[in-house]
Design brief:
seven-stranded mixed sheet, Rossmann fold, single chain, about 35% helix
């Protein structure tokens, strides 16, 4: 792909990770030989300022019945989704018969709060295994991809929506124009489209190269959101910074002229220009920083292993697939990855095939070092892992820089 998915302008590529496995597919040994791989590369569009993947993997490879991400697996994220739901119910649901649609509703962790209050709702989720969990939580779910056809179906069966929501999912949909058209058709005249996504300014500032993996087609900033959705008569009316997923932004859009645009939108547009987010040189510098982090992390871990130290991974996140494979780490470097999600335990990390073991093993095993792959949940993890530090364990971190530490703050 050489042209922008938003405006068709030629893209300036700035970083390639090489051929990478699917980040959220955790294979068993019988799958190792035929594991799917594709180039993971990212570029910048000087026409609309959208940062995006330059090589896309078909959606069917990414989202299926073995999809291994569950939104409700973190207590911190569960609390965040409750806040998100309360925010929507308080500000954007005008009547008792309001209707809410969530795109990529996953295991229902957000919509369950609407369901408990008998608010009319519908979750649209392409992966049946996680949608089934949502259904058990009392969340009405439709196992489909969100597109114009699905939007028209929902409109005919349920009517238009007062609020359409997306939590770290809109950036996953390559056909962003289909998203905009679908929202435009399904949204009431005074309704809102509210979505969250990792904020490109934080990704750049923290050298958080692990935010780049196959599901993240786009890396949004305020400029790129405005330029993308304004093409379809949708106006960005408010923005709110959120301290999740390493630093996210909540975007509130509406039909043009339906809501007043807040001063915060204008302030961030100015700030992004000041931060250099509208020029390729900023992203080229980011690529150099990512390469430096890669080399430093590999060197650090190799040195510790040569000293006989036991190193494990903490949390088999999708982001960890980028780190592990980009840095060339193997089971020789990382003995195993500890994870609390039952569906991941007993499987292996993508590409490198590092065993994923239950959290109880981590508690019993007493490793010397743990690589904090879930750094975006650092506050929650540090409160939980005080005993790890007391017995002499240390954390290896790579965001915002490679280091060995005893305590981590998000």
């Amino acid at each position: 792909m050489s042209n922008c998915l938003v405006c068709d302008h030629p893209i300036d590529s700035f970083l390639s990770f090489g051929n990478m496995p699917i980040a959220n597919h955790l294979p068993m040994p019988k799958h190792f030989r035929n594991e799917f791989r594709a180039e993971l590369a990212v570029g910048f569009c000087p026409g609309c300022y959208m940062v995006q993947l330059t090589n896309l993997v078909e959606q069917e490879h990414l989202y299926n019945d073995e999809y291994a991400f569950f939104s409700g697996s973190s207590k911190g994220m569960s609390k965040h989704f409750q806040e998100f739901a309360e925010f929507i119910m308080q500000h954007y649901l005008p009547t008792d018969d309001s209707f809410v649609v969530e795109v990529g509703s996953n295991d229902g962790i957000l919509l369950q709060h609407m369901a408990k209050r008998n608010i009319k709702h519908l979750g649209i989720e392409p992966s049946a295994n996680v949608a089934n969990i949502a259904t058990k939580r009392g969340v009405e779910s439709l196992v489909e991809f969100f597109n114009v056809t699905t939007a028209e179906k929902v409109k005919q069966t349920h009517g238009q929506a007062d609020a359409i929501l997306g939590a770290n999912v809109i950036c996953h949909i390559p056909d962003i124009h289909s998203v905009a058209k679908s929202v435009k058709a399904l949204l009431k005249p005074n309704g809102v489209f509210v979505f969250e996504a990792p904020y490109i300014a934080n990704t750049i500032r923290k050298t958080a190269f692990d935010q780049i993996y196959d599901e993240h087609a786009f890396f949004f900033g305020v400029h790129s959101v405005v330029n993308c959705f304004s093409r379809h008569g949708l106006e960005l009316v408010d923005v709110m910074e959120r301290n999740v997923h390493g630093g996210s932004m909540r975007y509130v859009l509406a039909h043009k002229g339906a809501h007043e645009v807040t001063s915060k939108v204008k302030q961030l547009l100015v700030l992004e220009d000041h931060l250099g987010l509208l020029k390729i040189e900023t992203y080229q510098d980011f690529a150099k920083s990512a390469e430096k982090s890669r080399d430093q992390l590999k060197q650090l871990i190799t040195g510790l292993r040569e000293q006989g130290k036991k190193i494990v991974g903490y949390a088999a996140t999708a982001k960890s697939a980028t780190v592990i494979n980009y840095c060339g780490l193997t089971p020789e470097h990382i003995k195993y990855i500890s994870d609390t999600t039952p569906a991941k335990q007993g499987r292996y990390s993508p590409g490198a095939h590092i065993p994923i073991k239950p959290y109880e093993i981590f508690k019993q095993d007493k490793p010397d070092y743990a690589i904090l792959f879930a750094w975006n949940h650092a506050d929650e993890i540090m409160a939980k892992e005080k005993n790890f530090i007391k017995r002499g364990g240390k954390w290896i971190v790579f965001v915002p820089e490679v280091a060995i530490v005893e305590n981590v703050k998000q």
